[in-house]
């Protein structure tokens, strides 16, 4: 049995400060493009393709043909995300194995980030009825984002000890929401004054989408330069003479076998798959829900998301402080309870009721960053040293292995009911199952099984 850790948290290091900037960089794409703008924009492009003579405010009831399969334009975004997440589940498992064996993991982080940023920037070219280009670029950008996060998350274990990770992870998430909020604010101003600048709504949306890709690429330079001295981990169990690719496959097989030795890690991963699926689907569907179901104009939805971003900054910092008192495990459990309340309120909120919509946004902002940040730091305590990227690839890949289920359910419920309300309430099951499973994880036992020091507050 491992002894309880006596290591105290250190003052913030320069590596930790550099690490935060990648949250800042990629959150611009996640917020402006993936969460707020691309969902309704791609839906409108798809509707123009399927129903070229559709009157404003009318519902498009004609399906698109995707490889011969009929797809409602309102479901296209969710099916696209579903495909991207299934593909990621296959690819990202290998990314972590390669990253652990790579002598320069920071180069991998930057390479994936810049490839994703390029795809995000090229979304500017999506116009008219060209929904195929938009859907393809969403898949590429999502895959590159997930691959970069595998490497990024694994670096947390190397720059923060067991008593620092809740704080560092929470601050990184908070920093990301602040950066994403700043760019969203600039795009909000552009949206308000687009006519004064001689732009139509579609062009102002495309410029905002382009700005997110450029932001992602530019700010990735800071973590790349600040962490470039990091080298590959040592102690991986596979012979390095096998090479990067061959050895990575061997290492993946070894990881899957090795996971059987850590039952609490497996149980945490299973719980995370469910409640994170619910979180990701709520985030991804909230923009189109506010616009299409609740009847708010795009400007209002953008303003509410801007409000959420800045609330989420303080929410993530608050959750980090609460975790320092009662432990991250309990804090995440309480957060899952609040997420369940979120979907109930979203189901009953009346159309065009701005006050209730703002109250819902406030609640989402408070729990949004905290649950995700603390889940990341909790998992980091449950994985063996020297295999961080490999295990975080399972974290990202297994997340995507089921997160397609939430978007698929959402898309299917909408396709059959033509109501986003029934689609959103169906997500409650993910939070209920995830919360029950997480409540059964014995964190102290799991940390000791992985051979890691136990934090002062579990």
Describe the structure.
The protein has helices at 14-50, 76-101, 105-122, 131-159, 165-192, 201-219, 221-226, 244-258, 263-293, 298-326, 328-348, 354-380, 388-417, 420-425, 428-439, 443-449, and strands at 64-66, 69-71. It is mainly alpha-helical and 458 residues long. The protein has a single domain (22-53, 63-449), classed as Up-down Bundle (Growth Hormone, Chain: A), CATH 1.20.1250. A two-stranded antiparallel sheet has the order 1-2. Strand 1 and strand 2 form a beta hairpin. The longest helix is centred in the N-terminal third of the chain and has 37 residues, at 14-50. The radius of gyration is 21 Å and the shape is globular.
In brief:
It is a multi-pass membrane protein. By secondary structure, the chain is an all-alpha fold.
Keywords summarizing the entry:
74% helix, Growth Hormone, Chain: A, 458 residues, two-stranded antiparallel ribbon, disordered N terminus, mainly alpha, single chain, globular
* CATH homologous superfamily title: MFS general substrate transporter like domains
State the CATH class. Answer: Mainly Alpha
Largest sheet: spatial strand order: 1-2
| Helix run count | 16
The backbone outline, from C-alpha atoms, is globular
Q: What percent of residues are in strands?
A: under 5%
The stretches of 5 or more residues where confidence is low (pLDDT under 50) are: 1-6, 234-239
Give the beta-strand count.
2
Question: Mean pLDDT score, rounded?
Answer: 85
Rounded radius of gyration (Å):
21 Å
| Main sheet overview | 2 strands, antiparallel
Order of helices and strands: HEEHHHHHHHHHHHHHHH
Structural class: mainly alpha
- Within the CATH hierarchy, at the fold level, what is the topology? Growth Hormone, Chain: A
Which architecture does the CATH hierarchy give at level 2? Up-down Bundle
Cα separation of the termini: 16 Å
- Percent of residues in helices comes to over 70%
Number of domains: 1
